[in-house]
Structure formats: structure tokens, C-alpha cells
């Protein structure tokens, strides 16, 4: 309709996200969500889930087909976990895309500046010395969140003090420096407290076990703020693609854009890893897969990474909890195990694309 | 531009340079490697801090915001970055950046401005091609279209025709010349090729070690004696005002004898 109007008035459409891609993204997210809700030790059935959801919509006289137990499984067990998967997956993938844009480096991921090492150290300290729980509150998320944000802040400050605000290479080196140091401290603490190695290890490989809706509500504000800022910067990330100098000559305050995007991507990432642990790979393969099939402009890559990252992590979690049921695989193992071959297939099917 | 100096890493790369470019004029900056041509252009574009005064239409460059500078001055570096997977129209759209709000998206009007810029450069057919698939001449057109879309009064070009064959060189230079006479554009360009410098700009300014060594119309600046003194080259100047000058390098007599 809009396309036809534009064509008639001979006004050119702005290149960017097409309706077909938006529809595909919505369809994939809905399908992944339904699969995540339906499959488990107790099968719930798609039709029943849809009727159950419809029964909560006012003025629609649909009655729920579920028993009280099934209702609890859906709303108290599976739904929070699926929603957390959606949030974490979308956050890691969109933050990865943003990092790649800011650094103009295809290997950049949201952990590049020390977020993972900082979160790892924070969680390890909480597990080793805090016993993980103090006064009934799980300390790990708080410690991991603080570790991730402080780690990246330290890397940024170090990079800036040696002129890194103007050069991305310096900033990356500062990130590597800080990450190595934090990892060294984390390993030391872990070796000093061998009784908790198992728990630390499990945390580092990632998991989406939740204590219900409280966790989801806790990270939602950070994640939402992060997405709002990242999506507002998608056009400016395209401008950064021509390099700092030319972006500046086009009127962009490169250092400020870089700081704002990195800060907000890090904030969201820190909130995500605080609950999920260090889930690897999502921040790299999802944005790259999107670039390969849909285009390299950040006006396309950011929103689609968000959607496909959400769906990807929900499906990965579904595998993590069903393959060796009733036990669970760490989700980081699943994302790497299935993510890498998937990426290889996409790579073979299409041309090589750099951001 | 008045008594402008730029120091990079403590070395004075541009030293007390003064130049006035009238609206609609094309001035060529020439000089041997390391003379400070690129640095002078970057100072005008507000990309390096400078001492002295650079004014555009009465406004001091260093007092303007990035965005305000970008609305007045378009800068094309010697080796522009062309992301290979970006389409030409997406690339030209980047030129609209200074005219858009911080987080605003480009609208149909911006796209139309870009299509117009491409059409003026005879490059409308390139719009949906990827930058990586373009020839040297086509790339240069895409870059020029981006700076046209920026809609500025001053265009800074650093070696606009390096790495182009002689036909593509001529096309690009004729285009710049035409844009200038039709669109009232003012051009300041750094130039390596002295023959081109002798044919296209209205005036030349010869830089040597950051200082002005000579300036004026081509026939006054491009003399065999001046080129020998500042470039250390033996050349013959041929042609006249009607055809434009050509600078022909000659093999060194001594070197020839020694061989």
C-alpha cells in the first residue's frame, strides 16, 4: 500500500528493512516461543497454549483447556524461562552487532572489552567467598553485573588515557589487557577455592534457569534502555563504516557516538550475563548470519539481530533441556555446538561479507 | 585562511599559510610529498587543530560544531573508505548525515537528493550496485555524489584522480569543473599531477615544507625554474593559456650519461 503510493508519487523508498523481513522475524520469534512453551517433560500442545493465552484476553469468551498444574507449568516454569531466553538472546546478538559496528571489526563481540572476564570474576568471587547467597538473595547476578560494567569501564578508561578515544585499535588492546588481568585473578580465586570449581564452571558455561518472573523483571529495564539507544544509533553506525575521519567530516562526533553505543551495549550485556552466565557465540554468529542473508546496513542488521538472536537462544535452550533430559546441558555448549555448523552452512551458501 | 599553522607530533607541518578562495573558484594546492597539502586540507575540514584563523563565509571553523562544519564543507580524502557491501545509494545517503537529526532516519526527500546527485554525475544507473563491484572511475563518482548530497558550498578534494586511468581522470575532472560552474561550488584540491594542476584550477598555490612558495595562475607558478627548485625535477612546460599547460618530466642528463 505504502509502496504503491510512493511509486505513484514517484518518491523513492528509503533503502532499509523490508516488510518481508519484518514478517519473517516476527514469525520466527513467535514459532520459537511456541516451541519453547510447548516442549518439555509435560507436552502442552500449541493449540492448547494459544487457547490458554486467548482465555486471558478480556471480551474473548475462550475457556482455558489447562488444569491448574498445566497452568502453573506454563506460566510459572516455562514462560519466565522462554522470556528470559528471548531477552538474553536478543541482547547478546544486538550488542554484538553494535560492537562490530563501533569497532568495524567482524570478530568483535559484546565480551571484547572485558565484560565476560569482569562478570566471570564477579560471579566467582560471589560463589567462592559469599557462598553465592547472602540473606536469602542470590549475590551472583549483582556481582557479575558489577564485574562486567567495571571491567569495560576500566578498559575504556585505559584506552582513553592512551588516546584510544580516537583509535579503535588502542581500545581493543586495552580491552584485551583488562580481560587478561581479570581472567588471571578469576583463575587464581578459583584455584584457591577448589570446592566451588564445579559451580563456577557451570556458571561460566551459561544457563537460563530462573527463579521465575522476578529475574525477568530485574533485567528488563536495562535491556530495554539498551535496545532503545542502540536502535536509535543504527544510522550512525552505518556512518562509522567509512572510518573515523570521514565520519567526522560528515558531521558525526565519533568519540561520543562510540562511547554512548559501547556504554549502552555493555549495560544490556552485563544485565544479560548476570542472569544467564557467559553464553558464547550468539553475539557473533547471529549478526553475521543476518548480514549474509539480509544486508549489511545497521538499519537492517540491528533489528534483525535482535529478533533472530531471541529466537536462536530460545531454541538453543530448548535443546539444552531436552537432549539429555532429565539432566540439562549448559546452554553455552549448545550455542557453540549448533551455532558453528549453522554458521558454516550460511557461509557456504552465500558470499563472504564483512561489516 | 590566515596565517594558519598546524603542528603534528610537535613538527610544524603547515607554517603560517594564508589563502583566500573566492566563492565559485577552484584553487589547486601543489607541492612535493610532505609539503603539507593534505594537512592544510584537513585543517580546513576541522579534522586537525590549528593555530591562526580559518574562516568559511565569515565563520571560524574551530568555533563551529562538527555538524555545522559538515553542512558547509565536504571533504574527500585521498583514499576514501568504501565498504564493499554497501550499495551506492546507501553510501551517497551518508552524505545527508549533517542534515539529519542525531537519531533521525533518512527520508524519501534525502533519497531523492541522492538520486539527483547521482544523476548530475551521470551515475544514476549505479544506485543499486555494491561499492565493491565498481571500477575506479565509478568509485570516484560515488564519492563525489556523496559530497554533492552533503550540499555544501566548499568541496575539499585530496588527490581526486590518483589511481585513475587517463580517461577516468579526465571524466572526473570535467565533472568537478562542470559542478563548479553550474552549481556555484567552491573547490580547494590538493594535486599531485602538475599537468592536471596546470589545466583545471583557476589558481595554484605551491606549498613547500609547510610554507607558501608561490601562488597565482598556472602559467606563473608552473615554470621550469620553480618546479626544479621545489620538486628537484627537470621538466619542460609545454602548451599555452588556450590549451592549458602540460608539465613533461625529462630524463636527467647526468643520469643518462652515467648509464
Count of β-strands of chain A? 2
Largest interface: A-B, 32 and 43 residues
- Quick one: CATH superfamily of chain A? ABC transporter involved in vitamin B12 uptake, BtuC
Q: How many structural domains can be distinguished in the coordinates of chain B? A: 1
Task: Provide the spatial order of strands within the biggest beta sheet of chain B.
Answer: 7-8-9-3-10-11
Contiguous low-pLDDT stretches of chain B (5 residues minimum) are none
Instruction: Give me the CATH fold name of chain A.
Output: ABC transporter involved in vitamin B12 uptake, BtuC
Q: Strand share of the residues of chain B?
A: 15-25%
| Coarse shape of chain A | globular
Structural class of chain B: alpha/beta
Percentage of helical residues of chain A? over 70%
Q: Give the terminus-to-terminus CA distance of chain B.
A: 47 Å
How is the topology of this model organized?
The complex is a heterodimer of chains A (355) and B (259).
Chain A: H1 2-8, H2 19-38, H3 46-55, H4 68-103, H5 115-130, E1 133-134, E2 137-138, H6 139-161, H7 168-192, H8 197-205, H9 213-232, H10 234-240, H11 244-249, H12 254-276, H13 282-294, H14 298-322, H15 331-349
Antiparallel strand pairs in A: 1-2
Helix pairs in contact in A: 2-4, 2-14, 4-9, 4-12, 4-13, 4-14, 5-6, 5-7, 5-8, 5-12, 6-7, 6-12, 9-12, 10-14, 13-14, 13-15, 14-15
Chain B: E1 2-8, E2 11-17, E3 26-30, H1 37-44, E4 51-53, E5 55-56, E6 59-60, H2 66-72, E7 73-76, H3 88-93, H4 108-120, H5 136-149, E8 154-158, H6 166-183, E9 186-190, H7 194-199, E10 203-208, E11 211-216, H8 218-221, H9 224-231, E12 235-238, E13 246-249, H10 253-258
Helix pairs in contact in B: 4-5, 5-6
Amino acid at each position: 500500500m505504502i509502496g504503491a503510493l510512493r511509486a505513484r508519487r514517484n518518491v523513492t523508498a528509503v533503502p532499509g528493512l523490508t516488510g518481508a523481513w519484518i514478517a519473517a522475524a516476527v514469525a520466527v520469534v513467535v514459532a520459537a516461543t511456541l516451541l519453547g512453551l510447548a516442549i518439555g517433560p509435560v507436552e502442552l500442545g500449541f493449540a492448547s497454549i494459544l487457547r490458554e493465552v486467548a482465555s486471558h484476553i478480556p471480551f474473548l469468551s475462550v475457556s482455558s483447556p489447562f488444569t491448574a498444574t498445566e497452568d502453573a507449568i506454563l506460566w510459572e516454569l516455562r514462560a519466565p524461562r522462554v522470556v528470559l531466553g528471548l531477552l538474553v538472546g536478543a541482547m547478546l546478538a544486538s550488542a554484538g552487532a553494535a560492537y562490530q559496528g563501533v569497532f568495524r571489526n567482524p570478530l568483535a563481540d559484546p565480551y571484547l572489552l572485558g565484560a565476560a572476564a569482569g562478570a566471570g570474576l564477579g560471579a566467582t568471587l560471589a560463589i567462592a567467598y559469599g557462598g553465592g547467597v547472602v540473606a536469602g538473595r542470590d549475590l551472583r547476578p549483582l556481582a557479575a553485573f558489577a564485574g562486567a560494567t567495571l571491567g569495560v569501564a576500566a578498559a575504556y578508561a585505559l584506552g582513553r588515557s592512551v588516546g584510544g578515544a580516537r583509535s579503535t585499535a588502542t581500545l581493543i588492546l586495552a580491552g584485551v589487557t583488562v580481560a587478561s588481568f581479570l581472567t588471571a585473578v578469576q583463575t587464581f580465586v578459583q584455584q584457591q577455592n577448589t570446592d566451588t570449581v564445579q559451580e563456577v564452571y557451570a556458571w561460566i558455561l551459561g544457563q537460563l534457569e530462573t527463579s521465575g518472573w522476578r529475574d525477568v523483571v530485574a533485567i528488563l529495564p536495562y535491556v530495554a534502555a539498551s535496545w532503545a539507544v542502540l536502535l536509535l544509533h543504527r544510522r550512525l553506525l552505518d556512518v562509522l563504516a567509512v572510518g573515523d575521519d570521514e565520519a567526522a567530516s560528515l558531521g558525526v562526533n565519533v568519540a561520543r557516538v562510540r562511547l554512548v553505543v559501547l556504554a549502552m551495549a555493555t549495560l544490556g550485556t552485563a544485565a544479560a550475563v548476570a542472569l544467564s552466565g557467559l553464553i558464547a557465540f550468539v553475539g557473533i554468529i547471529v549478526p553475521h548470519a543476518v548480514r549474509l542473508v539480509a544486508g549489511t546496513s545497521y538499519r537492517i542488521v540491528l533489528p534483525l539481530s535482535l529478533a533472530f538472536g531471541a529466537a536462536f537462544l530460545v531454541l538453543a535452550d530448548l535443546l539444552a533441556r531436552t537432549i539429555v533430559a532429565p539432566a540439562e546441558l549448559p546452554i553455552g555448549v549448545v550455542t557453540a555446538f549448533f551455532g558453528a555448523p549453522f554458521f558454516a552452512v550460511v557461509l557456504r551458501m552465500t558470499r563472504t561479507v564483512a561489516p | 585562511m590566515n596565517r594558519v599553522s598546524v603542528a603534528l607530533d610537535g613538527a610544524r607541518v603547515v607554517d603560517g599559510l594564508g589563502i583566500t578562495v573566492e566563492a565559485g573558484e577552484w584553487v589547486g594546492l601543489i607541492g612535493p610529498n610532505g609539503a603539507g597539502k593534505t594537512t592544510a586540507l584537513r585543517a580546513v575540514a576541522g579534522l586537525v587543530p590549528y593555530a591562526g584563523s580559518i574562516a568559511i563565509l565569515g565563520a571560524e571553523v574551530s568555533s563551529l560544531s562538527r555538524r555545522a562544519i559538515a553542512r558547509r564543507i565536504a571533504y574527500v580524502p585521498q583514499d576514501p573508505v568504501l565498504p564493499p557491501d554497501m550499495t551506492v545509494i546507501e553510501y551517497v545517503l551518508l552524505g545527508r548525515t549533517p542534515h539529519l537529526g542525531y537519531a533521525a532516519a533518512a527520508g524519501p526527500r534525502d533519497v531523492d537528493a541522492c538520486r539527483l546527485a547521482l544523476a548530475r554525475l551521470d551515475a544514476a544507473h549505479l544506485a543499486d550496485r555494491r561499492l565493491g563491484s565498481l571500477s575506479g572511475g565509478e568509485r570516484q563518482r560515488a564519492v563525489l555524489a556523496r559530497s554533492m548530497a552533503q550540499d555544501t558550498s566548499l568541496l575539499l578534494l585530496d588527490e581526486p584522480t590518483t589511481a585513475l586511468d587517463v580517461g577516468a581522470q579526465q571524466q572526473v575532472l570535467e565533472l568537478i569543473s562542470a559542478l563548479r560552474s553550474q552549481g556555484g561550488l567552491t573547490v580547494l584540491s590538493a594535486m599531485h599531477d602538475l599537468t592536471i594542476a596546470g589545466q583545471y584550477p583557476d589558481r595554484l598555490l605551491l606549498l613547500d615544507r609547510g610554507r607558501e612558495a608561490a601562488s597565482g595562475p598556472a602559467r606563473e607558478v608552473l615554470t621550469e625554474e620553480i618546479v626544479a627548485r621545489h620538486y628537484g625535477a627537470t621538466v619542460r612546460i609545454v602548451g599555452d593559456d588556450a590549451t592549458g599547460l602540460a608539465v613533461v618530466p625529462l630524463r636527467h642528463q647526468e643520469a643518462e650519461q652515467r648509464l
